[in-house]
Design a protein that fits this description.
The structure holds 2 protein chains of 2 kinds.
Chain A lengths: L1 H10 L9 E6 L6 H18 L4 E8 L4 H10 L11 E5 L7 H4 L13 E3 L6 H16 L5 E6 L2 H6 L3 H13 L3 E9 L5 H10 L2 E7 L11 H10 L2 E9 L5 E11 L2 E6 L3 H9 L11 H9 L22 H12 L37
Chain B lengths: L7 H5 L15 E6 L6 H11 L7 E6 L4 H10 L4 H6 L3 E5 L10 H21 L9 E6 L1 H7 L4 H18 L2 E7 L10 H9 L2 E6 L11 E7 L12 E7 L3 E2 L3 H6 L12 E2 L2 E2 L2 E2 L13 E2 L1
Helix pairs in contact in B: 5-7, 7-8
Classes of the chains: A alpha/beta, B alpha/beta.
C-alpha cells in the first residue's frame, strides 16, 4: 500500500490537472513520519532514475535535515547522488534558515554551496521560496515539457516561520504549477491546531497517517505493565492512507509498520479492510448494508429500461397496454425472464399516468422547449 | 576501575563501548524532569563521562541555572575537577545567569541575544584546535530559563535550538539539553517541549514511580533511544527503564574522623540523603553509589 502511494506520485498528474499531493502525518506517540518520508523519497528517486516516472527531477526542500543527510540516506539505499546529481536538487532551509550566519560580524565562517544544494536564508519569505523551488526544478528538467517532483521534509517547520494561509498558498500554487508532477510533505500533527492539519488534508489527494500500535499505552506514566507496550509503540505502528480518486471516491487502506535499522517495512493487515469499509458508512439506526440474500434478489431484478444489453431486440415497454399483453411483451422483449413467473424474482411494474403520454424514448421530452 | 563503575545509564546511552568515536557524536539528547524528580544528576553524570581521561571531548556548557561553583562542587564529588578541565580548555563555561542584553530594545533583544549566544558557541567551536573540533559536546542547563531569557519568546528559543541542531550535523558535535516537563503540562499544545522531543535522538525522562513515593527508590529513568538511521551498526529504537536512588557523598575529612559509627573508615565517607530546598537529595551520583541503580 505504501507502494501504491509511491506509484501514484510516480505517475503524476494528467494535463490540466493538479499534481497528486501526499501528506504524511505523524505524532509524538508514533514518530515514524520521517521514516515514511524517507521511504517515499527513496522510491520516487528510484523511479526517476529508472526513467519510469512522469517527473524527470526532484527538488527536496530540506528544513529538518542537512543536505548531507539526504546524500548519505540515498547512498545507503544504493543511489549515489554525490557523483551524479543532474536529476536532484536540495534546497537547504536547514543550515541557515533565518540568515543568522549573515549577521555574524566575522565572515570567516564561510558556507560551501554546491551544485547539489543551494541555500535559502530567509524562510519567512514564502514568495521567494516558491520562486527558488520553481527555478531549481526548471533547472533540472530544462526547457521542454518535462515535469519535476517536490518533497518538503517538514511543513511543520515551514509554518513556524509563516502564517497558515501563506503556507497553504504556496503548497496550492506548487500543486497547480504546470511543471510539477507530484508533491509530498511531512507534518507533525500534534504541533499544530486542527485547522492547519485540516487545511493540508484538503489540499492533498492522499493522506497517510502514522498511528501508534497500542493507543492505550500513550500518555501514561511508564511502569512495568505498559513498558512492553511502549516499546512496541517505538518499533511498530499503524499506517492509514486515505486516497481521493479522480472519480471522487475515497478509499481507505491500512497497513502495519515495522521500523528497523535498515529502514521501514510495511506489512498488510488483512482483517482490517472490512472494518475500514464499514467505518465509511454513516452510523444511523437503519441498516444500509445488504445481506447475501438481498444481494441475490437485487441481481435478479429486471430493470424497466429499454437497453438490457443482452442482444435481444429492443422493445420499449410503454405501460399503456393491458397487463396480460404486457407480461407477454415483457417476456419476449427481455428474454431474461424465467418461464415460471412465480419464481420469486423481483419485477418492476410501471403504470403510466395517462394514455395520452407518449411512450418512453431516448429523446428528452424537454427538447422541444425553446428556452 | 572505569568498567566497574559503569552503570545502567551509561549502557543505555551506549557509553559502555570504546570512548572514541564518542557514541553521542552528532546526536541530540533531551533530559526531561519534573519537580519531584530532578534530572540534573543525569547532566552531571554526562559531564563526568564526557571529561573522562580516555576521551578527548570538549564541553561547551551554557549555564542559565547555576554558577560555575555549583557544578564544580558537584563534579568534584564525582571525581572530576572542573577547574583543571577549564584550564585545559576541555570545559568551557558560559555563564548566562545575567540573562538580559541591556541596551537593545525590547522586541529585538530576545532574538538578538540568542543570535549572539549562537555566534559565541560557533566561534568557540571554530577556534578549537583541529583535533578537538570533532569532539565537542554542547550542554544547555536549562531550556526553560532560555525561554525566560527570551522573554517568553519560545519561537526564538526554537530557532536557537534549530541552529544548535545544525551545529551537530556541521561539526558532528553532540547537543545535550535539559527541560522541565511539568512546566508545560497545563498547556493545551506545549509546542516547545514537543518540538524538542521531535528534535531529540535520545530522550531521557526522570519521573516519579507510577505507584507514588517510596523510601528506597527516588524515581525512575526512562531512556528512549530513537536510533537514528545514520548511525550504522547501532540497534534500533530501544527503550530502557530503571529505578534510581541518589546518594550524597561528602568528602570532609574532619567530619569523618569525628563520626565513626557504621561507616567505612577506609573509604572515609559517609552516605546520607538529605533535603535541599524541599527536594529530595538530588545532588550527585557517586561512582560507588551508581552500583545501586536498581534494574526496573
Amino acid at each position: 500500500m505504501a507502494d501504491t502511494i509511491c506509484r501514484t506520485l510516480r505517475d503524476g498528474g494528467l494535463e490540466g490537472e493538479h499534481a497528486p499531493a501526499l501528506t504524511i502525518k505523524d505524532s509524538k506517540a508514533s514518530p515514524f513520519g520521517f521514516d515514511v518520508f524517507n521511504y517515499v523519497l527513496t522510491q520516487l528517486s528510484n523511479y526517476i532514475l529508472a526513467g519510469k516516472s512522469q517527473s524527470r527531477g526532484l527538488v527536496v526542500v530540506a528544513y529538518s535535515r542537512s543536505p548531507s543527510f539526504y546524500v548519505d540516506l540515498l547512498k545507503r539505499r544504493g543511489i549515489d547522488i554525490a557523483s551524479s546529481h543532474d536529476w536532484i536538487h536540495i534546497l537547504d532551509c536547514y543550515t541557515d534558515p533565518l540568515g543568522w550566519k549573515n549577521w555574524l560580524i566575522d565572515k570567516d565562517i564561510s558556507q560551501e554551496a554546491s551544485s547539489l544544494s543551494s541555500f535559502c536564508q530567509d524562510v519567512r519569505n514564502l514568495d521567494k521560496l516558491y520562486s527558488l523551488i520553481i527555478e531549481q526544478g526548471k533547472g533540472l528538467i530544462g526547457q521542454g515539457k518535462d515535469r519535476f517532483s517536490i518533497a518538503i521534509d517538514s511543513v511543520s517547520e515551514m509554518v513556524r516561520h509563516a502564517s497558515i494561509s501563506s503556507v497553504a498558498g504556496i503548497l496550492s500554487n506548487l500543486r497547480s504549477h504546470d511543471q510539477v508532477s507530484s508533491i509530498f510533505w511531512l507534518l507533525h500533527s500534534d504541533l499544530h491546531e486542527i485547522k492547519f492539519t485540516s487545511v493540508l488534508e484538503y489540499l492533498s489527494s492522499m493522506v497517510a497517517s502514522v498511528e501508534p500500535f497500542n493507543q492505550a499505552a500513550f500518555g501514561q506514566r511508564v511502569d512495568l505493565e505498559n513498558l512492553s507496550m511502549l516499546e512496541q509503540n517505538f518499533r511498530k505502528g499503524k499506517f492509514h492512507v486515505r486516497f481521493k480518486r479522480r472519480n471522487g471516491r475515497v478509499r481507505v487502506m491500512c497497513e502495519e509498520i515495522l521500523v528497523e535499522l535498515a529502514g521501514i517495512k510495511f506489512t498488510p493487515v488483512l482483517s482490517e479492510d472490512e472494518i475500514i469499509n464499514q467505518r465509511l458508512l454513516p452510523k444511523v439506526q437503519f441498516n444500509l448494508q445488504l445481506s447475501e440474500e438481498e444481494r441475490n434478489e437485487r441481481a435478479k431484478v429486471v430493470l424497466p429500461f429499454e437497453h438490457q444489453g443482452n442482444g435481444k431486440p429492443i422493445q420499449i415497454y410503454d405501460g399503456r397496454r393491458s397487463l396480460g399483453e404486457n407480461k407477454e411483451e415483457a417476456l419476449v422483449s427481455t428474454g431474461k425472464l424465467q418461464p415460471d413467473e412465480d419464481s420469486g424474482k423481483g419485477q418492476i411494474i410501471y403504470f403510466r399516468d395517462s394514455d395520452d403520454e407518449m411512450p418512453d424514448s431516448d429523446e428528452d421530452p424537454d427538447d422541444d422547449l425553446d428556452i | 576501575m572505569e568498567n566497574q563503575n559503569l552503570n545502567l545509564l551509561d549502557r543505555a546511552l551506549g557509553l559502555d563501548g570504546p570512548s572514541e568515536p564518542w557514541p553521542l557524536s552528532g546526536r541530540v539528547v533531551l533530559i526531561e524532569d519534573c519537580v519531584e524528580t530532578s534530572g540534573s544528576f543525569v547532566l552531571h553524570q554526562l559531564v563526568k563521562r564526557s571529561l573522562s581521561p580516555t576521551s578527548s571531548n570538549v564541553i561547551i556548557f551554557v549555564a542559565f541555572a547555576n554558577p560555575f561553583s555549583h557544578y564544580d562542587r558537584i563534579l568534584r564529588k564525582l571525581g572530576c575537577n572542573l577547574v583543571t578541565q577549564r584550564d585545559n580548555k576541555r570545559f568551557i563555561f558560559f555563564d548566562m545567569l545575567m540573562l538580559r542584553c541591556p541596551d537593545v530594545d525590547e522586541g529585538k533583544s530576545s532574538e538578538g541575544g540568542l543570535v549572539l549566544l549562537y555566534e559565541k558557541i560557533l566561534k568557540t567551536i571554530c577556534g578549537l584546535p583541529g583535533d578537538k573540533k570533532d569532539y565537542v559536546t554542547i550542554m544547555i542547563d536549562d531550556i526553560s530559563l532560555v525561554e525566560v531569557a527570551a522573554n517568553g519568546g519560545s519561537d526564538y528559543v526554537l530557532d536557537f535550538l534549530h541552529y544548535c541542531h545544525a551545529l551537530t550535523s556541521e561539526f558532528d558535535c553532540s547537543l545535550i539539553t535539559l527541560n522541565h516537563e511539568d512546566i508545560y503540562s497545563s498547556m493545551e499544545r506545549p509546542t516547545l517541549i514537543l518540538q524538542m522531543e521531535y528534535l531529540a535522538d535520545i530522550l531521557i525522562k526522570a519521573e516519579p514511580l507510577s505507584t507514588g513515593l517510596a523510601t528506597d527508590v527516588h524515581g525512575q529513568l526512562t531512556v528512549l533511544n530513537k536510533g537514528t538511521s545514520h548511525r550504522l551498526g547501532r540497534s534500533g529504537n530501544k527503550i530502557h527503564n530503571f529505578h534510581y536512588k541518589l546518594y550524597v557523598v561528602l568528602w570532609r575529612k574532619k567530619l569523618v574522623i569525628s563520626i565513626d559509627k557504621g561507616y567505612s573508615s577506609e573509604k572515609r565517607s559517609f552516605r546520607r540523603t538529605y533535603h535541599v530546598n524541599g527536594r529530595l537529595g538530588f545532588w550527585n551520583l557517586n561512582t560507588l553509589c551508581v552500583t545501586h541503580l536498581l534494574n526496573g
